[in-house]
Backbone:
């Protein structure tokens, strides 16, 4: 028996004792005669059903693979307090207040009835406390049941069976609250009240109530780093031959190929649909839905499930995901559908199944080191004041400016790269650039599912950057920022990666760029997903724009952590069709509604997607470096 399973089963026994024993003793002393015997049968039966069902879930959860991502006690405690106990994300919506009150009421009653285990008499709790908490159960259960029937059923297109299964939990909770107020009227009513609590206990492993236990467990085992992908192998510590010889699946083929934490996460999903409401791909004419992904994988946690995951990945259209991360941002319990989606893409990749255009992109990446067509898009020549590679005997550069594939090969991004370089020169920064030695970070390969190609590129880039004799890497691509700054840490790299909006802010603040002239404009900033949601860099671009006199900054209707995706992420940029065009158009409409004269962004992918639809509305799209350059010239 594996260690996680042993721990899980031990905790199950302890939880059962803590939950069931006080209520069993209470019922035994409250009832007499045949009623006592009947309750004993109900309690023992329900406890047995609970233990059996939860033991089965623990076996399923611990049948997965060990997770390569770190989990710390401090992070687990913080998540548990914020997302489970305080219900912070649940409270973001009005209906969440109802859920939270019901949760706190039931949790408080659980604690009160467990007081005898601490040697305390629950009679010390005033009667009005019992009344208040049971009223919360009734009000919460009835409200959630009514909303399910009147709103959710139609909104989520639930079948009668799904509606019935969802209705069970709130109605059972409401019934427990109602029965409390009748318990004093006679032994029958008290028996019903005690039995309903026992039935609630027994129903947990078999109904949507499972999330009451799965969520705290998920928050305890969830990796500390948000939106971090597990790696099936690590080429920094093993050769490709060793990785293949180990026989590890390079992408999940069956349920057991997911990590244990992922399997718990599937059951922690309550199918509330918030991720579906936030997903930009939903409004783009695809059948993809992060909620549907979690639902289907939740159903694989059944002992009878034999669905091949590659078939499931096809049916769910996982290639439609932009990996924007908005699903994780809005999930009440912080589930990460995109990490699951990217693992399913690995399954498809290692079957050689790609969307049209993806194969060509990966072939260029493998053969030429860049995802752009290097023959049609000639690289820009941008030498820095410090030649590459830096002379070991000379003063080291302040930083290496990493242009990225777009900055080197895409014409519009080349203009931005030249602007950044000009600002660095004006500030007297001693910088260097790898020039023709620079290759892609491998980000497109990882998003498309080719983990091996990504890791090979990552190790080459790390070796290249170590030649720079500086630890500071300047980037103006949000995807390079994420790969080098976050994902490369798994391969031993510890670089100080700075986005150009932050570094230019430092130059302005210290006076190295000189005085900025006034710009009488109204602009809106678009948060790139991989800069904002993925890496929480929201303030630096806004602070920089705020230093320009006369420049008025307005916020778009969806901004910061809830910013709408441009549509290029997740490898969609390289598909033959342009599936992100509809997403970009929606964002352009938000820009027009803001009243801004110009849209400002900080990522070449966003620039490529948004420039045309924004210009059709009579506005321009500028990189944040170009705004600073404008202030320098005027």
Residues:
């Amino acid at each position: 028996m594996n260690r996680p399973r042993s721990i899980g089963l031990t905790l199950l026994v302890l939880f059962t004792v803590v939950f069931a024993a006080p209520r069993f003793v209470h019922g035994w002393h409250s009832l007499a005669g045949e009623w006592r015997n009947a309750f004993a049968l109900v309690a023992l039966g329900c406890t047995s059903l609970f233990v059996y069902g939860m033991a089965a879930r623990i076996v399923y959860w611990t049948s997965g693979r060990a997770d390569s991502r770190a989990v710390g006690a401090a992070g687990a405690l913080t998540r548990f307090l914020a997302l489970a106990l305080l219900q912070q994300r649940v409270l973001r919506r009005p209906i969440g207040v109802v859920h939270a009150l019901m949760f706190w009421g039931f949790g408080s009653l659980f604690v009160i009835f467990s007081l005898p285990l601490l040697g305390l008499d629950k009679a010390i709790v005033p009667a009005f406390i019992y009344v208040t908490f049971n009223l919360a159960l009734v009000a919460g259960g009835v409200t959630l049941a009514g909303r399910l029937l009147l709103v959710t059923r139609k909104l989520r297109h639930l079948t009668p069976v799904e509606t019935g299964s969802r209705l069970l939990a709130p109605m059972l909770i409401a019934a427990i609250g109602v029965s409390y107020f009748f318990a004093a009227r006679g032994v029958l009513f008290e028996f019903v009240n005690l039995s309903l609590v026992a039935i609630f206990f027994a129903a947990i492993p078999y109904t949507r109530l499972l999330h009451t236990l799965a969520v705290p467990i998920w928050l305890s085992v969830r990796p500390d780093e948000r939106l971090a992908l597990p790696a099936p192998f690590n080429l920094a510590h093993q050769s490709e031959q060793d990785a293949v010889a180990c026989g590890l699946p390079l992408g999940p083929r069956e349920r057991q190929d997911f990590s244990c934490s992922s399997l718990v996460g599937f059951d922690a999903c309550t199918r509330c649909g918030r991720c579906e409401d936030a997903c930009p791909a939903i409004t783009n004419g695809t059948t993809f839905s992060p909620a549907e992904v979690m639902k289907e994988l939740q159903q694989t946690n059944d002992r009878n499930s034999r669905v091949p995951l590659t078939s499931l990945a096809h049916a769910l259209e996982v290639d439609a995901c932009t990996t924007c991360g908005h699903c994780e941002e809005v999930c009440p319990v912080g589930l990460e559908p995109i990490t699951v989606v990217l693992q399913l893409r690995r399954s498809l990749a290692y079957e050689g199944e790609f969307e049209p255009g993806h194969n060509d992109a990966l072939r260029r990446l493998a053969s030429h080191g860049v995802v752009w067509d290097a023959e049609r898009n000639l690289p820009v020549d941008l030498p820095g004041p410090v030649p590459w590679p830096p002379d070991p005997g000379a003063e080291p550069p302040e930083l290496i400016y990493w242009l990225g594939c777009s900055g080197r090969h895409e014409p519009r991004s080349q203009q931005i790269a030249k602007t950044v370089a000009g600002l660095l020169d004006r500030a007297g920064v001693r910088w260097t650039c790898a020039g023709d030695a620079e290759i892609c970070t491998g980000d497109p390969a990882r998003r498309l599912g080719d983990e091996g190609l990504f890791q090979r590129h990552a190790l080459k880039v790390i070796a290249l950057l170590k030649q720079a004799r500086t630890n500071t890497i300047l980037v103006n691509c949000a995807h390079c920022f994420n790969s080098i700054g976050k994902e490369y840490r798994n391969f031993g790299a510890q670089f100080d990666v700075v986005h150009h909006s932050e570094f230019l802010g430092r130059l302005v603040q210290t006076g190295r760029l000189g005085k900025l002239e006034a710009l009488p404009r109204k602009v809106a900033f678009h948060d790139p997903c991989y800069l904002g949601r993925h890496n929480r860099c929201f303030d630096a671009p806004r602070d920089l724009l705020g230093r320009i006199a006369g420049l008025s900054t307005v916020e778009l209707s969806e901004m910061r952590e809830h910013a709408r995706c441009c549509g290029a992420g997740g490898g969609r940029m390289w598909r033959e069709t342009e599936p992100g065009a509809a997403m970009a158009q929606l964002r352009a409409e938000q820009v027009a509604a803001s009243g801004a004269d110009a849209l400002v962004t900080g990522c070449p992918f966003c620039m490529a997607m948004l420039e045309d639809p924004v210009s059709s509305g009579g506005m321009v799209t500028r990189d944040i470096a170009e705004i600073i350059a404008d202030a320098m010239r005027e």
